[in-house]
Design a protein that fits this description.
about 325 residues; about 50% helix; alpha/beta; D-Maltodextrin-Binding Protein, domain 2; globular; 4-stranded mixed beta sheet
């Protein structure tokens, strides 16, 4: 009888220990998406290595609100972590938006080079903002999608362009393009396309399909505006509560699984681009080298507009110089 009682007590204590650390984590990504599939793999790996002592409770599909609402809930302690992109990153680690700045990168090789070179510096910006970056998760090359063909910058002036409300990078980019965009929440975009309140959006191909925006646009300008980044983050307060062993498990797996997510996202976006072509969206290349140069010059202007708002002039200068040096080295090979 005593043995039975002790065994039952052991099971209760073991179960309690297994439930000791739960991270309530929210994201806009829908169930079934690559983002969520990898997050579930991340969760399972953490639970296995920690013998069930650490795990995620994941709220997907925006059920906890948009990124600003989610981060507000994290601040209140109702959530502890989030999958965030541009607007979310701006609110906690504005310097990290240097990776999203307009017309900065021309290839994934350049993205990877700068992201790795500045990894520690940008991760420190998250910590200053009260969060730990568990891993970068790329969203993908962002393109302009419209209902009238856009070839040169002057064509954009007739477009009723959407802008993600509260995103200073998009605001600076469109200001450099002499466009007055219509600021809306992401959740309002599809309805606004349907009612013709807007007739232009910007998005990676995969997100355009996931959000169903592709059914309401006809053209894509084949000149990537930026490579959009994302991150899986946890409140530093929650992270600091974890034993060192669990912190190590979380960080190591976060880095590995978010790197996997970036690889898969690039593959998914390439396939999504082909899907968009098959769905009838016309891909338009800039008509000349002069047009491409005009877009790149707008990117330079847009990046300068963000100095003092998101990042310092020193950081911008260092990134641009390192990128130019990298291009020279790569070209020489």
């Amino acid at each position: 009888m005593i043995i039975t009682f002790l065994f039952a007590l052991f099971l209760i204590e073991s179960s309690a220990a297994a439930q000791e650390y739960i991270i309530k984590f929210a994201t806009l990504a829908p169930e079934g998406s690559t983002w969520m599939n990898v997050m579930h793999e991340f969760d399972q790996a953490v639970r296995t290595e920690s013998s069930g002592a650490l795990g995620f409770k994941i709220y997907s599909g925006g059920v906890q609100g948009d990124e600003i609402q989610v981060l507000r809930k994290v601040k209140l302690g109702q959530l502890q972590g989030a999958g965030i992109t541009g607007v979310g990153i701006t609110s906690i680690a504005p310097e990290a938006r240097i990776l999203d700045s307009p017309f900065l990168f021309k290839s994934y090789g350049e993205v990877d080079y700068i992201a790795e070179k500045y990894r520690n510096e940008l991760n420190a910006a998250f910590e200053t903002g009260g969060y730990i970056n568990l891993g970068w998760a790329e969203v993908g090359w962002t393109y302009l999608f419209t209902n009238a063909p856009v070839r040169t910058p002057s064509d954009l002036k007739s477009v009723k362009m959407w802008m993600w409300e509260g995103d200073p990078v998009a605001e600076a980019m469109f200001r450099a393009m002499s466009i007055n965009p219509i600021p809306l929440s992401v959740t309002d975009v599809l309805t606004s396309l349907q009612t013709k309140m807007i007739d232009g959006v910007y998005s990676p191909p995969l997100a355009l399909i996931a959000m169903q925006w592709f059914s309401r646009v006809k053209y894509m300008l084949n000149a990537p505006l930026a490579d959009a980044t994302g991150a899986a983050v946890i409140a530093k307060k929650k992270f600091d509560e974890l034993p060192l062993r669990l912190q190590e498990i979380l960080l190591r797996n976060g880095k590995n699984y978010m790197a996997k997510l970036t690889r898969l996202s690039r593959e998914d976006n390439a396939r999504a681009l082909e899907t968009l072509k098959q769905s009838g969206i016309t891909i338009i290349d800039p008509p000349s080298a002069q047009a491409i140069q005009a877009y790149e010059e707008m990117g330079v202007q847009g990046r300068k507009l963000l100095v003092g708002k998101l990042y310092s002039d020193d950081l911008l200068r260092r990134v641009e110089n390192d990128l130019a040096e990298h291009r020279g080295t790569t070209k020489a090979k």
